[in-house]
Amino acid sequence: MDSFHYSLADGIARVRFARPETLNSLTFKVYCDLTDLFYRLRFEDDVKVILLEGNGRGFCSGGDVHEIIGELLKRDVKGLLEFTRMSGELIVNMRQIEKPIVAAVNGIAAGAGAVIALASDFRIFANEAKIAFLFQKVGLTAADMGAVFLLPKVVGLARATELLMLGDTIAADQAERIGLANNVVPLEQLEEASLALAERLAKSASLALGLTKRLINNEWNMDIASAIEQEATAQALMMQTRDHKEFHDAFANKRTPKFEGR
């Protein structure tokens, strides 16, 4: 079975998990295929936005109990480290791709599935959706795949500590309240809402969006003077782009700009 369904139209790459019978649990192959995909999409100019979608009743329930967890119990430290580094590489590739990622969370996002949603740039939840960083409930540290790095930056240190140490399942409305969900919609409207956001992003100045994402990543650990200097340099470069000139021409001629990412 394929790891995911893939399609591309109008600048939007749709990536849909393909194991609904297991709530889209992850196998070694799914991990590897997703990691490779997010790396490859960096270089595909036709792709402006990635829409990551669940399938069936779930978004992604994390590592498959039989195909991953059971197998990992047979490995030595070297083999385990190979796996944990590989799973972390997926999140690195998601953060380093200079294109927005929209996660359409239709159902449960748990464990590694929660981190995949977290690593996306936007998260649209269905009313029924839930998210849980439940690593400690299976006897593991929540410091997995970058969760301890990313979550405090999204919801703040105190709330992140609560979510990571207790492992509670968070409903969609609470996820929106703490800033983990950008929007919550009825399930039947999830595809429409997430596609509308993806389409809006696809029509934006993609070069500017990519640089914004790069600077969001870079400035997490900078002092303010270094961050402002980096932004000054980046903005001076952007002022020379065709997209910026296109905005000015469109404004002067009272028309909608057509950005080309150049």
Describe the 3D structure.
With 262 residues, the chain is an alpha/beta fold. 49% of the residues lie in helices and 16% in strands. The model has no long low-confidence stretch (mean pLDDT 95). Helix 1 (28-40) runs parallel beside helix 3 (77-96), helix 5 packs across helix 6 and helix 9 packs antiparallel against helix 10 (224-238). It has 2 domains: 4-202, Alpha-Beta Complex (2-enoyl-CoA Hydratase, Chain A, domain 1), CATH 3.90.226; 206-252, Lyase 2-enoyl-coa Hydratase, Chain  A, domain 2. It is globular, with a radius of gyration of 19 Å. The strands form 2 sheets. Strands 1-2-3-5-7-10 form a 6-stranded mixed sheet. It has a 4-stranded mixed sheet with strand order 4-6-8-9. The chain contains 11 helices and 10 strands.
What is the overall number of helices?
11
Helix/sheet category: alpha/beta
Mean pLDDT: 95
Q: Please identify the top-level CATH class of the largest domain.
A: Alpha Beta
Largest sheet: 6 strands, mixed
In short:
The protein is α/β, with parallel strands linked by helices and 262 residues long. It folds into two domains: 4-202, Alpha-Beta Complex (2-enoyl-CoA Hydratase, Chain A, domain 1), CATH 3.90.226; 206-252, Lyase 2-enoyl-coa Hydratase, Chain  A, domain 2. It contains eleven helices and ten strands.
